[in-house]
Design a protein that fits this description.
Four Helix Bundle (Hemerythrin (Met), subunit A), 7-stranded mixed sheet, about 40% helix, about 350 residues, 4-stranded mixed sheet
């Protein structure tokens, strides 16, 4: 499944706000369109956001390619600043923008049109590298299991959250190919329902056995002994292994620890932010109250009711069994094992 693709100076993205009821494609023709796609969750998931941002920066260069060098550079600075404002927690966004900015700086002696083509080629490369990393991550994760298991996953860390294949669902896909998946329990993931709308749709499409549950049912199934392992994705991982992921992940990790169930995080190295020593330094996005007060556009709660809507929480490293990456698997003590992955 392709989450996004580029053709004729246009970035096409599956509009994930519409799934699974309808399949629609969002067309981004300039970096403001890309900003909207990320901000409004047309595209979501840290790796997918990163690749989208890389294309957004390249798209800006293509649109400004006719300007003189000074004007081109000024407009590209505006574009990178704007794209960086779209969502604060997913570190892949900033990683991709910094990567593209370095590519531009390395080629600044060239004409704007030449720089634009190089940036577009680099975005294509990042997309393919993300898919390859996900597939290797899946293989690394599947190697941890030696018998069929019942998995639980929270939010969507599948093909839709990446350029293709998936991180947490990549592990589950690889395990399923080896006959190691009995059942995947899928949390709804309120309030945006990424689990119900997206993960369930992906697994059902791939004919992987699944059972959809509401978030507050997870404890029941842990207590029944129905969950053998948890696999989730990540939006940012601190140097010590603390992991920011979709709101509710921390709760699942506490349940897993209480019931002695291994808890795995699957994410590419680009999601690890070693500039943050711990999860307390990770910025947490708060989203619109309408995601709580409305369901499919219909108000279900009086507008006057106070709300809080943090989009992410932080799971402490002590609740995490292992972090699965494309370069290998990190385990406690995470500072040392994470650093060793970057040296490979």
């Amino acid at each position: 499944m392709e989450t996004l693709w580029f053709k004729d100076k246009t970035l096409f993205l599956i509009d994930q706000r519409k799934l699974p009821l309808t399949y629609e494609v969002f067309e981004a023709r300039d970096y403001e369109d890309v900003f909207t796609a990320i901000k409004e969750m047309v595209v979501r998931g840290a790796p997918a956001i990163g690749v989208t941002a890389a294309y957004g920066y390249a798209l800006a260069a293509l649109n400004f390619a006719s300007l003189d060098k000074s004007s081109f550079t000024a407009e590209m600075h505006k574009a990178s600043t704007r794209l960086a404002e779209s969502r604060p927690t997913a570190v892949n966004l900033f990683w991709a923008l910094e990567h593209q900015k370095r590519i531009m700086e390395d080629n600044i002696a060239l004409e704007p049109a030449e720089i634009a083509q190089i940036l577009l080629n680099e975005a294509h490369k990042l997309k393919q590298e993300d898919i390859a990393a996900n597939m290797q991550m899946g293989a690394n994760g599947a190697a941890l299991f030696d018998k069929p298991l019942n998995f639980l996953t929270h939010c969507n860390a599948g093909a839709l959250a990446t350029a293709g294949y998936g991180t947490a669902l990549g592990v589950i896909r690889a395990a399923h190919k080896k006959g190691l998946v009995k059942m995947v329990y899928v949390d709804e993931t309120r309030p945006y329902l990424q689990g119900a709308r997206l993960t369930a749709w992906e697994l059902f499409s791939d004919k992987i056995p699944l059972t959809l549950i509401t978030d507050n049912m997870a404890g029941f199934f842990f207590k029944q002994g129905a969950i053998d392992a948890v696999v989730v994705g990540a939006d940012r991982i601190a140097a010590n292994g603390d992991t920011a992921n979709k709101i509710g992940t921390y709760t699942v990790s506490v349940l897993a620890k209480e019931h002695n169930v291994p808890f795995y995080v699957a994410a590419p190295l680009s999601t690890i932010d070693r500039t943050k020593s711990s999860g307390s330094e990770i910025p947490i996005e708060e989203r619109s109250k309408s995601e709580i007060t409305h369901v499919y556009g219909k108000r279900v709660i009086p507008d006057e009711v106070p709300t809080r809507n943090p989009a992410f929480d932080v799971t402490p490293a002590g609740n995490i069994t292992a972090i699965i990456t494309e370069k290998g698997v990190a385990t406690a003590p995470f500072v040392q094992s994470i650093n060793s992955l970057f040296e490979k």
